[in-house]
Amino acid sequence: MPLLEIKNLAKGYPAPGAEGGLHKVVDIGEFALAAGEQVALRGESGSGKTTFLNLVAGILAPDAGEITLNGVNIAARGEAARDRVRAETVGYIFQTFNLLQGHTALENVELGMAFGRGVDRARAESLLRRVGLGEKLEHFPRQLSTGQQQRVAVARALANRPKLVLADEPTGNLDARNAKEALALIREVCREEGAALLLVSHDEGVLSQFESVKDFAELNRAVTSAPLKLQAPTSKLQ
Amino acid sequence: MLELGGSLAVMILNLIHRSLRQHALSTLVTAGGIALAAGLLLTVWVVKTQAQAVFASTNSGFDAVLGARGSKLQLVLNSIFHLESSPGNIKAEDLEMLRRNPMLGGAIKAAIPIAVGDSYRGWRIVGTTEQLFGEIEYAPGKKYAFKGKGRNFKIGEDEAVAGSYAAQKLGWRVGSKFHPEHGVSGGQHDHDEEFTVVGILEPTNTPVDRVIWIPLEGLQTMSGHNPMAATEISAVLIQLKAPTAGLMMSNMLNASGGKLTFAYPIGSIVAELFNKISWVDKVLALVAWLVALVAAGSVLVGIYNSMSARARDIAILRALGAHRRTVFGAVVGEAAAIGLLGAAAGLAVFAVLAGIVAGIVRAQTGVALDPWQWNPVFAWAPALLVGLAVLGGFAPAVKAYRVPVAETIAPLS
């Protein structure tokens, strides 16, 4: 049984003039990811990649379909249950890192554990050492370089021993050298931790590093060629 | 080792702590407002309840006061609290009449005459008998005691006993000498007689501490006093054998057409005073509550205004798996923390304010208040203020609860 299995997943946002008043962003018939597998999704900006990852993470609720993650169909669960699944099963690496500026590197990693299995300082320190920040545990994000901030984000994503790591343009804010290093690090650490990796990017340099690359436009049947102007989400809670 | 149990709570406390530090100025101003409200509220409440209780129970060991026809409150204030002017004098025969009355005399345990009218540098001089310091208990089981080698004055001698507070303020010791001044507030002229301080009383925390005591005859026959009034006294302090006698005496002596006033019971008469001035503490309490409401409003505005800047942090926490109710709780917790900080600082404000008020009350009346004596307001006022702060935190907490995670956290791709 795959770690992640998606069936007939659909998500849209209200948009004036759209069919049924809803602009469909994600419409995926089938998608699966095995445990420990590393897959990259190629897609242009505005193609719905981030919405797709947010659906897989349980941040957004789909309008239809199934998202079975680690044996649980999170699409059928309420928001609190999805939060719990996300905290315990998913690690998320963002393009903009999304570190809490008022917290040290160590505390940021510990935050990645707080809502799931609980804080384990030794592991947080060990992960930061693993990503080369053993000397920067007490540094605040503003005291770190962009590359170092991304390393903290990687350590945080892995902190809670997730089964699945989602990476949304994780090297988009890095220069070429740092991007290559960061990508190698993400893949390496995921492998070491036994976590599957689902990465989305439009950068061919990044995609070329993966053995398994899928075209998101082929996967997603929704028409999303133009950048989307969001209105309020549909009736379902995020 | 995993810290499964309290790690989330610790992390949320850490988040609250960081947020308070990050918004230090707003935190301090808001907590300061709550501290001011807490301090005012505690002071008003404690001083009100304690002053009422202490004043109502301050009777210097007497059950009643007999004096000239007039206001009972004025009589009590003048003869027990040594405030206000005397309502007038009564004749020594009136006291004798009382003692000889077969119905009334038997009910009296002790009757101590006092005469007022002189002072020294603003401190009242009261003439009385040596019996006051020899036999009377000013509180149950407590008799007057003299400091060091001091002793009671002797009748017929120009000797004085000073209350502890007056002696301290005048810098007196045994052997100090003084010329009484005419009038209760002094300043008219000095009498020729020179009195010697022979005893200084140990503190009693009663109005007695503010008085200079001399023999009754010494005051009555002081040079410059009207010789016709040499046998007059200002009041008689009375101890009864049984409280029931007080009502009987009150009915008889206060009957219309009489020339005397029998003030009994002292506690009830003092309580009248507090009823008359109850509007003062109501106004002060209202001010304190208004300050509390403004402080709670500033909690609301302070946190609410910072929510836009914090939306990203909240979205990150939510993306890491924090429930909506967790971020809601964190914001309410932050408001509660501000409330707690304010309430704690409010105790310091109270310590200062109540100390000042207690000092003024002591200086003006001799009555010692103990602001730190347990009062239920110490529990409910801080709790109520923290509750108000928590209420103030609800609106921003709802805003945090509604932060749209996906839109806030990441650009679309």
Protein model, in words:
- The complex is a heterodimer of chains A (about 240) and B (about 425).
- Helix content of chain A is about 35%, strand content about 25%.
- Chain A has helices at about 50-55, 80-90, 105-115, 120-130, 145-160, 175-195, 205, 215-220, and strands spanning about 5-15, 20-35, 40, 65-70, 70-75, 90-95, 165-170, 195-200, 215.
- In chain A, the strands form 2 sheets. A 5-stranded parallel beta sheet of chain A has the order 6-7-8-3-9, sandwiched between helices. In chain A, strands 2-1-4-5 form a 4-stranded antiparallel beta sheet.
- In chain A, a hairpin with a 2-residue loop joins strand 4 (about 65-70) and strand 5 (about 70-75).
- The longest helix of chain A has 18 residues, at about 175-195.
- Residues about 225-238 of chain A have low confidence and may be disordered.
- Chain B starts with 6 loop residues before the first helix and ends with a helix.
- Chain B has 2 domains: about 10-55 and about 275-410, no CATH class; about 65-265, no CATH class.
- By secondary structure, chain B is α+β, with helices and mostly antiparallel strands.
- The model of chain B is unreliable at about 1-5 (pLDDT under 50).
- Helix content of chain B is about 55%, strand content about 15%.
- The chains are: A alpha/beta (about 240), B alpha+beta (about 425).
- The interface between A and B is large, with 52 and 37 residues.
Brief overview, please?
The complex is a heterodimer of chains A (238) and B (413). Chain A is α/β, with parallel strands linked by helices and 238 residues long.
Strand content of chain B: 5-15%
| Rg of Cα set of chain A | 17 Å
According to CATH, the fold-level topology of chain A is Rossmann fold
What portion of the residues of chain A fall into strands of 2 or more residues? 15-25%
N-end to C-end Cα span of chain A: 27 Å
Radius of gyration of chain B: 31 Å
Number of domains of chain B: 2
Tell how many strands the DSSP assignment of chain B holds.
14
Helix content of chain A: 25-40%
Oligomer: heterodimer
The 3D shape of chain B can be described as elongated
- The pLDDT mean of chain B sits at 88
Characterize the overall form of chain A. globular
Low-confidence stretches of chain A: 224-238
- Helix tally of chain A? 8
The topology string of helices and strands of chain A comes to EEEHEEHEHHHEHEHEH
Individual helix count of chain B: 13
Classify the secondary structure makeup of chain A into a structural class: alpha/beta
Most extensive interface between two protein chains, with residue counts: A-B, 52 and 37 residues
Spatial ordering of strands, largest sheet of chain A: 6-7-8-3-9
